[in-house]
Write a structure and sequence with these properties.
The chain has 273 residues and is α/β, with parallel strands linked by helices. The chain is 32% helix and 22% strand. The strands form four sheets. Strands 6-5-4-9-12-14-15 form a seven-stranded parallel sheet, with helices on both faces. The protein has a three-stranded antiparallel sheet with strand order 1-3-2. The radius of gyration is 20 Å and the shape is globular.
C-alpha cells in the first residue's frame, strides 16, 4: 500500500474513533510497526493528528464515542428472565475467594445479585457491575483504563498495554453477539480487541448466551469453539444447536426461566438512551 493511501486511512480512522492504536493499524494496514510509527510521526509533524503513547489521537477528539454494539438500556429489557436464570447458574460456578473476569453486558450484569455474599477479586470493564459490587465492600474491583462508552456502559482501551496485562482470573464470564460452529462472535472491532485481551488473562471461558444468540451471526470471531469451556443458555435453544456445542466438547448448561419476563428497574447511572 502506498504511503499516501496509508495516511488517508489513518486520518479517517483517527477522525472516526478519536484514538487508534499502533497495534490495530499494523493489523488493518498489513504494515510493520516501524512503518506505522513513521506514518504517525510524519502526520503529527504536519499537524494532522497527535502522537500518544501506543497510537494516535485526533486533534479534536469526538465528545461522543460510538460502538457498533447494542445499547445497554435497550438490550437489558430483552429476555430478562432468561438472562437472570443464566446469571444464577454462572454465579454458582464461582467459589468464595476466587479471582474472576466479568466482561460487560446485560447478561453478565445480572450476576451481581448472586455475588454479593462472596469475597472475590474481579476484573470488569462494566461500570454497572463495578458500581454495584463495590457497594458491599466485599470485593476487590479492578477496571481497565480506556475510553468510556456510556451507551454500552463499558470502558474499552485501544492500547495493547493496560490493566488487563497484570490481572489473572480463573474464569472469564462473558456474553456475546452470536455463537455458532465458528465460535463466539461480536460486531465491533474494538469490542473484539478488548475481549481478546480479557481472554488472555483467564484460564477458562464461560459464555452466557440466551438462545437468541445461538441463531445470530457476525463476521468477527472472538474465540473458536475449542477455546470455550462452558456455554450457559436457556431452554429456547434448539436440539441441533445444543448438539453442535456438545459435539465440540463444550460443557453445555441449559436453564429454564422461572419467573415472568419483566422489565428491570431503572437505575440512576450510565443508563443512556
Amino acid at each position: 500500500m502506498l504511503e499516501r493511501e496509508r495516511h488517508r486511512i489513518i486520518r479517517n480512522l483517527v477522525e472516526d474513533r478519536s484514538v487508534v492504536s499502533v497495534t490495530e493499524l499494523v493489523e488493518l494496514l498489513a504494515a510493520s510497526e516501524a512503518t506505522i510509527r513513521r506514518d504517525i510521526n510524519a502526520m503529527a509533524d504536519r499537524g494532522e493528528l497527535r502522537r500518544v503513547r501506543g497510537g494516535a489521537e485526533a486533534l479534536r477528539p469526538r465528545h461522543q464515542t460510538h460502538l457498533g454494539a447494542s445499547h445497554f438500556a435497550a438490550e437489558e429489557q430483552v429476555c430478562f428472565a432468561e438472562k437472570r436464570a443464566i446469571a444464577r447458574a454462572a454465579a454458582a460456578m464461582i467459589e468464595d475467594g476466587e479471582s474472576v473476569v466479568i466482561n460487560g453486558g446485560t447478561t453478565t450484569y445480572r450476576m451481581v445479585e448472586f455475588l454479593r455474599e462472596l469475597r472475590l477479586d474481579i476484573l470488569t470493564n462494566s461500570f454497572p457491575i463495578a458500581t454495584e459490587l463495590m457497594q458491599g465492600h466485599r470485593h476487590r474491583i479492578t477496571i481497565p483504563g480506556g475510553t468510556i462508552y456510556p451507551q454500552q456502559s463499558i470502558v474499552l482501551s485501544p492500547f495493547a498495554q493496560d490493566t488487563t496485562k497484570h490481572f489473572w482470573g480463573r474464569t472469564l464470564f462473558t456474553g456475546c453477539y452470536g455463537l455458532n460452529s465458528f465460535g463466539m462472535m461480536e460486531t465491533d472491532p474494538l469490542v473484539v480487541q478488548a475481549e481478546i485481551k480479557l481472554l488472555e488473562c483467564a484460564e477458562r471461558l464461560v459464555i452466557m448466551a440466551d438462545s437468541r444468540k445461538l441463531r445470530q451471526r457476525s463476521s468477527m470471531v472472538v474465540a473458536p469453539l475449542s477455546r470455550i469451556a462452558t456455554v450457559i443458555t436457556d431452554s429456547g435453544a434448539a436440539a441441533e444447536e445444543l448438539e453442535m456445542l456438545r459435539t465440540a466438547g463444550i460443557e453445555t448448561v441449559v436453564v429454564t426461566a422461572e419467573e415472568p419476563a419483566t422489565e428491570p428497574a431503572a437505575r440512576g447511572f450510565l443508563h443512556v438512551a
